[in-house]
Design a protein that fits this description.
The protein is mostly helical. The protein has two domains: 3-240 and 547-580, no CATH class; 261-539. Helix content is 56%, strand content 4%. The chain is built from 27 helices and six strands. It has helices at 6-10, 19-32, 41-55, 63-68, 76-86, 88-98, 104-120, 131-138, 147-153, 165-179, 188-194, 223-230, 237-249, 251-259, 264-276, 282-296, 299-307, 326-345, 348-362, 370-396, 398-407, 429-450, 456-464, 469-473, 478-501, 509-520, 545-559, and strands at 197-198, 220-221, 309-312, 322-325, 536-540, 594-598. The protein has a two-stranded parallel sheet.
């Protein structure tokens, strides 16, 4: 069947769906709502593959076609036709739910069964027990499915999955349904995610399917089992997308994750990907940063990561890290990502997400490890030098800067992080650097002002590297100057006390730290100012589908053995030379998932 004839095949002239596709989806949903058995396991796999194949028409239309659906146009019939042609069966599924073409309970049972399949991860039964093999044994010459068809419906996967095929296909089906962009009414299955509850806190009747109070169907799953299933491989693409939707849309799952005492089992694998695959896996990096940003919006998470000590980090190569808090390790990896992005990628959204996480973590920084303290001071120094050099370039060559800004060409940065040419500057780069620098200054200032006693290594590092702060005081930027002056005043207090106490003999690091601890207790701590606490909140943008939809279908394409016609896929780029297990590259510039909203009244909104 031609892609161009899908609308004619399944829709009437008034854009209403014919009964055949409605009956087809209804039958699939009702059968797959039942738990698989040894006899039906292979049939369930076949039908999940079939359903994903029905949904896959979205891969053959560019994402801009979906954007056109949002245009203001009086021709509603054309809009409906374009929406249907984009993805016939997903559009139909949305209408079946919203227009009550299928009982609501059937939808709820189907979605719940998807989660049950994901969490139970039922293994594939022995081949001798399967329904298809039983049929083959009974009528081998007539009914046995050819090997080519068998391999089509039961592909080997991408070679990286740690779960069974039924669990994987259920998760991919759930993601395909949840991510679908369905203007103008929105995706009802996305809203359904918000209502999923934990079985531990829901009073169910004997059937376990409805509330005795209002007879309304409730999707209740074990959040504990779901979390345990995710952390088996939290950095896999499938699990990252599932984490994103659950943390963002479901408050019950969000609260459960925050209550876990082993949060390192989730965060450490994510940090390892950030550390080792910043260039190779940009889509994963982007998703991981947003997931950590969502987690860091909760003060309990920030307190937990700063109190949980990691005794050794084997995958960190720059130096041996021992007895560092998870929060400290998170700061180290984020700062490394910022410095790398600053020198090569120069992606503003990545900068904003990294700095937003650092800002959220800063309210609970305590007993900071020497290495993250040193790296934080280094980041402050790099941002300061870049900001001052940018400002000098603009003030000395405004006409050249204007021409470069109008040209809009961005050239690669020089090898040094501090070297900046006029052609590298765009119209908003100075303001962007100002916002970044102001955020880091606030983090350092708040830590020294309110938690100096518990962050002695930060004071020690600043005493060795703070001369550049005087350059900020000399600028005409009042906000930067005021914060820098306060930091220098605090450092001057310790410097003067050290000068008065020290004799000609050299002091060891341990002795200096002990002295700093004693003197820090003598500092006057001002009353806590809630408005001065840095807090950033993630907000999903309306066109997030421009990133998520290609990303999700790339995952499905890789997992299912690339059975589709690759030459006609336009949703994402395909590299024919890559191996089956390699993820296909997807540029994050094709779409932005969300933005960081500064909810600190006294801070600059970045």
């Amino acid at each position: 069947m031609s892609r161009l004839s899908l609308h004619q095949q399944f829709c009437a002239l008034d854009n209403s769906f014919k009964q055949l596709p409605i009956d087809l989806l209804t039958s699939l949903i009702r059968f797959l709502s039942h738990e698989s058995t040894d006899l039906t396991y292979d049939l369930h796999l076949m039908l999940y593959n079939y359903m994903l194949t029905l949904f896959s028409t979205e891969m053959y239309r560019p994402i801009t076609t979906t954007t056109m659906m949002l245009r203001d146009d009086d021709d509603d019939d054309d809009d409906d036709k374009q929406r249907i042609e984009s993805n016939v069966f997903l559009t139909l599924l949305m209408r079946m739910y919203t227009d009550k073409l299928i009982p609501e309970n059937d939808i709820y049972i189907f979605i719940k069964q998807l989660y049950v399949n994901i969490t139970t991860d039922k293994p594939r039964p022995n081949a001798s027990n399967g329904l298809l093999n039983s049929i083959g044994n009974a009528a081998s010459y007539l009914l046995l499915i050819p090997w080519s068809a068998y391999r089509y419906f039961f592909p080997p996967g991408d070679g990286t999955s740690r779960s069974g095929p039924l669990s994987d296909l259920s998760l991919l089906t759930l993601l395909a349904i949840t991510q679908y962009h369905n203007p103008p009414n929105g995706n009802p299955f996305r809203r359904l995610t918000n209502s999923i509850q934990d079985t531990l806190f829901v009073d169910l009747d004997t059937s376990g399917s409805s509330s005795p109070n209002n007879n309304r169907f409730i999707i209740a799953i074990s959040m504990s089992t779901l979390y345990e299933r995710i952390i088996i491989s939290p950095s896999s693409d499938k699990n990252l997308l599932l984490l994103y939707y659950l943390l963002l849309d479901n408050p019950n799952f969000f609260r459960y994750v925050q209550s876990r005492t082993d949060i390192d089992s989730l965060v450490l694998p994510l940090l390892q990907v950030l550390y080792s695959s910043f260039e190779e896996k940009p889509q994963q990096v982007y998703m991981i940063l947003i997931i950590i940003l969502i987690l860091s919006q909760d003060t309990l998470f920030n307190a937990n990561v700063h109190s949980l000590v990691i005794h050794q980090v084997l995958w960190y190569k720059e130096r041996l890290l021992k007895d560092i808090s998870l929060g400290g390790l998170l700061m180290v990896v984020l700062i490394k990502s910022i410095l790398f992005n600053l020198s090569k990628l120069r992606d503003v959204n990545l900068h904003m997400n990294c700095l937003a996480i650092l800002a959220n973590l800063s309210s609970n920084i305590a007993q900071i490890h020497p290495y993250p303290a040193t790296r934080l001071v280094k980041l402050l120094e790099v941002l300061t030098h870049r900001f001052i050099k940018l400002k000098k370039v603009l003030s000395s060559s405004p006409q050249m800067y204007s021409a470069a800004g109008d040209n809009g060409d961005n050239h690669n940065n020089n090898n040094s992080q501090l070297e900046i040419s006029i052609t590298d500057i765009n119209s908003g780069e100075l303001q962007t650097h100002f916002d970044f620098l102001h955020t880091i200054l606030q983090i350092v200032n708040n830590t020294l002002t309110y938690r100096a006693t518990s962050n002695l290594h930060l004071i020690y590092s600043l005493l060795h590297h703070s001369e550049y702060l005087s350059d900020l005081v000399a600028t005409n930027d009042e906000m930067l100057s005021d914060i820098s002056t306060n930091i220098l005043n605090i450092l001057s207090f310790f410097t003067n006390e050290l000068a008065a106490e020290k004799t000609t003999e050299d002091w060891s690091t341990e002795r200096i730290l002990s002295f700093l601890e004693t003197k820090s207790k003598q500092m006057l701590i001002p009353p806590s100012n809630p408005e001065g606490i840095l807090r950033f909140q993630y907000e999903e943008v309306s066109d997030s589908y421009e990133f998520i939809t290609p990303y999700m279908w790339t995952i499905i394409y890789n997992f299912m053995g690339r059975k589709w016609d690759a030459n006609n896929i336009t949703l994402f780029q395909i590299h024919h030379t890559s191996s089956l297990s390699d993820p296909l590259p997807l540029e994050t510039s094709e779409g932005v998932i969300g933005t960081t909203k500064n909810i600190t009244e006294s801070a600059i909104n970045i």
